[in-house]
Specification:
alpha/beta; 5-stranded mixed beta sheet; 13 strands
């Protein structure tokens, strides 16, 4: 039987890594490419693929955020045009498509959101009437809720665009600040532009934020096994719980849902996983925020069960009514 898989006997061609074309996607794919080369001993070449989310100028909520950045990459994988792909995990729909496997979730970057503001200002220092740009209903909901609860006067402004475009709104004076993911700026080498790291007690990140997903064809068992060497079990358990919450809420990745699972450490021993979730109306007038803890998951099912448990509690408190149209 002939072995036609990417790591099969006699295979010498570079492995083809499918990636979006943005600076951020290329930067994080480059990091993964280096790691994959190290574990496989093979060269890795980046194959740039344009996704619908990259070309559309509409706001993510309007184009159905779930999957708009990943469908083209997944199609290329299924057609055999690339050997594996790298995604920002928060962009992945919660249902794994047939024929593909999530081979690895590497060690997660800082999951927090950050502020890039004019004049080096922190969130608390922003002037009355400050205009804050974000393309995320989740961020809008939590920022507006925090402002309401602390007597701050802010206006959240919907924006789209890459990191340069978004920070450009601040540099030009059009906006007072923008909110971005810490992980993206870190991978771009631009973390020094951050003026404030937003506490997760103020703004919970998107489910899976800061984590990468490495995906390959289910038929490439040898490649999947090699990629699995890059998997971090704690990062995978955390994002599995967060994404199970999102799935059980029947919410897409553009819904105003935040979630973060983190490990609780007692001395040197990791003994529990805490999962926090939030759903809110974008104007910040209503917020359902809850948490639960459980033993550190030893399987995908254990982690997912924690997410479903918290989602059920949040739905019982009225979370469904805050999400607008739910994903089916």
């Amino acid at each position: 039987m002939t072995d036609n898989s990417p790591l099969g006997a006699g295979a010498t061609e570079p492995l083809r890594l499918g990636t979006r074309r943005s600076k951020l996607a290329m930067a994080q794919s480059g990091l993964v490419a280096d790691a994959v080369s190290e574990v496989t001993g093979r060269a890795v070449e980046l194959v740039e693929i344009t996704t619908y989310g990259d070309t559309s100028r509409e706001h993510l909520a309007q184009i159905g955020g779930t999957g708009v950045f990943v469908a083209a990459l997944r199609d290329a994988l299924l057609r055999g045009e690339v050997d594996f792909a790298v995604h920002s995990l928060k962009d992945l729909p919660t249902t794994q498509p047939e024929g593909l496997v999530l081979a690895a979730v590497p060690v997660r970057e800082d999951p927090r959101d950050v502020l890039v503001a004019r004049d080096g200002l922190t969130f608390e220092q922003l002037p009355s009437g400050a205009r804050i740009g974000t393309g995320s209903p989740r961020r809008m909901a939590q920022l507006n809720a925090y402002a309401r609860n602390h007597g701050l006067d802010i206006e959240t402004v919907p924006i789209r665009g890459n990191v340069d475009t978004r920070i450009g709104f601040v540099r030009s004076g059009e906006l007072d600040a923008v909110v971005l993911a810490a992980a993206g700026l870190s991978r771009l080498g631009r973390i020094g532009e951050v003026t404030d790291f937003l506490s997760v007690d103020t703004v919970l990140p998107a489910p899976g934020q800061g984590a990468l997903a490495i995906e390959c064809a289910a038929t490439s068992a040898d490649l999947a096994a090699a990629l699995a060497e890059l998997d971090d079990p704690y990062s995978r358990a955390a994002v599995t719980a967060e994404r199970a919450l999102l799935a059980a809420l029947e919410a897409g990745c553009s819904a105003p849902v935040g979630a973060l699972a983190d490990l609780l450490v007692d001395g040197q021993a990791v003994n529990e996983l805490r999962l926090r979730g939030v759903v809110g109306s974008t104007d910040g007038s209503s917020l359902v925020q809850m948490s639960t803890t459980g033993p550190v998951p030893t399987s995908h099912d254990d982690a997912a069960a924690l997410g479903r448990e918290l989602a059920a509690e949040m739905l019982a408190k009225g979370a469904a009514g805050l999400m607008g149209e739910r994903a089916l």
